[in-house]
Amino acid sequence: MYTQLEQRGMPEPPVNVSTLCKMKTEGEPIACLTAYDASYAALVDAAGTDLVLVGDSLGMVIQGHDTTVPVTVDDVIYHCRTVARGPRRAFLVADMPFMSYTEPAQALDNSVRLMQEGGAMMVKLEGGDDQVEIVEHLARHDIPVCAHLGLKPQSVHKIGGFRVQGREPDKAREMLESARRLQDAGADIVLLECVPNEAGQTITGALDVPVIGIGAGPHVNGQILVLYDILDITQGRTPRFVRNFQAGCDSPLAALQAYVDAVKQGTYPEPEHCFS
Ligand code: KIV
Q: Is 193 one of the annotated active-site residues of the chain?
């Protein structure tokens, strides 16, 4: 019975929380990507990605909204369920959408739905100190949690745009303290979005759990990007941290492999993708 999760007829065992912690300890960069459907999820997995996120970025890249705010729990479950049929090895994380985790009981109910109906292995939520109680409650019920700090896209209307966070020394200190509290509350991963390299480095060094960055510089334990951004599907201006991995590749799989190789070899991100 227990071998099912470990084997599934694959050359390598599936990634789990312990694998990710071991990668941090051993200094092996963790390559992560978003995915929203089974076909792309299979490619992302075949490329050697360690972690796949069904991000609420689906509201923007799939549904065509300007923000992630309109995304619902049912939307994430639908996409997560399709993605779960793709990967064989990658660890599957699902986003908790806007206002789906305002109270501990509500957060627990929605996490259970994402795991039972969507097939997620971990949930991700945005927030700092304000989410410590929620993370504690989920962790107490053995729900694996990724805590998302820095730029929190669900707060876009409150913060007035998608901006770099933690540039001021007091804000950087606050972020570090929040990261520590979230880890102590039971978060298994911390994700940092759009923060200066220095904040990425300091928080990564201060935590025992893996720190994954998107626009958080080269010193974090792993990188994540939005799939459609790196495949050059996203039209218009992309964020500074995005690199087009499709350029020079003759297939989406080759582009995804180029991304994974670049993360593993430390050739992405370069200074032009980072904030100071
Ligand atoms: O929703 C998403 O895709 C995310 C990534 C930007 C990390 O949260």
A: yes
Looking at ligand 1, which residue's alpha carbon is closest to its atom 2? Answer: 55
Structural domains of the chain, count: 1
Q: Looking at residue 11, what is its pLDDT?
A: 72
> Would 1 be classed as within a structural domain?
no
Q: What is the pLDDT of residues 124-148, one digit of tens each?
A: 999 999 999 999 999 999 999 999 9
Residue 140 three-state SS: helix
Task: Give yes or no for residue 10 having a pLDDT over 90.
Answer: no
In angstroms, what CA-CA distances link 189 with 5, 73, 145, 262? 21, 21, 7, 22
Question: Please, are residues 115 and 80 in contact by the beta-carbon 8 Å criterion?
Answer: no
The CATH code of the domain that includes 251 is: 3.20.20.60
Q: In terms of residue numbers, what domain contains 147? A: 14-273
* Closest ligand 1 atom number to CA of residue 124: 8
Pairing status of strand 145-150 against strand 189-193: parallel
Domain assignment of residue 215, yes or no: yes
The answer to whether the CB of 75 is under 6 A from ligand 1 is no
Q: CA angle, corner 214, sides to 112 and 173, nearest 5? A: 90
Residue 217 lies in a domain: yes
